[in-house]
Write a structure and sequence with these properties.
By secondary structure, the protein is an alpha/beta fold. It has helices spanning 12-25, 50-60, 77-84, 95-109, 114-124, 152-158, 180-186, 201-210, 214-219, 241-247, 254-261, 295-315, and strands at residues 6-10, 31-35, 41-43, 46-48, 130-133, 140-144, 149-151, 167-171, 193-196, 225-228, 231-232, 235-236, 267-271, 285-288. A hairpin with a 2-residue loop joins β11 and β12 (235-236). It is globular.
């Protein structure tokens, strides 16, 4: 039976930072990350899983701290030669990163599931924490703009999140399924909390919640579900969260984040600089430092979030 104590919903750089904090403060094997795969796409014939790989690299300590994605000490021979050949270079794949995409693509074509592949890869990287795709079925994030419906990576990387967002959809979500591995960790008898990391709610967490039956499965264990707000003072530390909220006609505030997650949440963690008075009455809230500049910051926020969740569990 699974020894998982904490399940984290994550995607992107901000989510990976808190996932690393949780990974470090919890006993080995006590963390399972459910990772957004709505960003996954086929590029240059390869299956690329940006959020899974960002989480993988962050937990192993080989992430590129300047870029926020990819591997550190990367080389770029492949991209240089591809550019010389006139190939597409808007989505950059480093040489070391490329090996992971090639191997994943090969194993998927051989009939393995993404869950099985990532479980093997995280073990090869020496990671005790579980890395679980939100589904082994294809779910694709689509961004509706005034001019076109865009695949996620075209919107986010090729166009640098510049177009106005009118709506966001998740193609394939209604027929997608959760994996047996995901059901196992949510059924862990030692489960004490579910943490929604400070990822972009609309681009990183909503695809996870859109998987058929997954939102209900998160509530089934009866443990506290606690989210860490991605906003500080109405601004996102990184990424287009606040921009998207404004474009969708939503105020960029912790109150709006709480309302967005609705009944899923038992509590919300906000930055110590933000006002508790903004939040909906009745929602337990904990204020602490949420800006994660250092490894110590990540561990501190992880501990504070878990202590808050434990407090909610004891109070229930």
């Amino acid at each position: 039976m699974s020894a998982v104590e904490v399940v984290a919903l994550t995607g992107g750089i901000g989510g990976a930072k808190l996932a690393l904090g949780l990974h470090r403060v919890l006993p080995p094997g006590a963390l399972a990350c459910i990772v957004n795969t709505g960003d996954d796409f086929v590029h240059l014939g390869l299956h690329v899983s940006p959020d899974l790989d960002t989480t993988l690299y962050t937990l192993t300590g080989c992430e590129n701290p300047e870029q926020g994605w990819g591997r550190r000490d990367e080389t770029w021979t492949f991209m240089r030669v591809l550019e010389e050949l006139g190939g597409e270079t808007w989505f950059r794949l480093g040489d070391g990163d490329l090996a992971l995409h090639v191997e994943r693509t090969r194993r998927l074509a051989a009939g393995e599931t993404l869950s099985a592949i990532m479980d093997d890869i995280r073990r090869r990287f020496g990671i005790a924490s579980r890395l679980l795709p939100m589904s082994d079925d294809k779910v694709a994030t689509r961004v509706h703009t005034p001019d076109a419906e865009l695949p996620f990576q075209d919107y986010f990387v090729r166009l640098r999140a510049a177009p106005e967002v009118r709506a966001i959809a998740f193609a394939g979500a209604s027929t997608s399924r959760t994996s047996a591995a995901l059901a196992e960790v949510l059924g862990s008898p030692r489960l004490r909390a579910i943490v929604v990391c400070p990822s972009n709610p609309y681009l990183s967490i909503d695809p996870i919640l859109a998987v058929r039956g997954l939102a209900a499965a998160l509530r089934a264990p009866g443990v506290p579900v606690v989210a860490v707000s991605p906003l500080i003072g109405g601004r996102a530390v990184k990424g287009p969260t606040a921009k998207i909220m404004r474009e969708l006609g939503i105020e960029a505030s912790n109150r709006a984040i709480a309302a967005h997650y609705g009944d899923l949440l038992d509590g919300l963690v906000i930055d110590e600089s933000d006002s508790l008075a903004e939040l909906p009455r009745g929602l337990p809230t904990h204020a602490t430092r949420t800006l994660m500049k250092s490894l110590d910051d990540r561990e501190m926020l992880a501990r504070a979030t878990l202590e808050f969740a434990d407090h909610l569990r004891r109070r229930a």
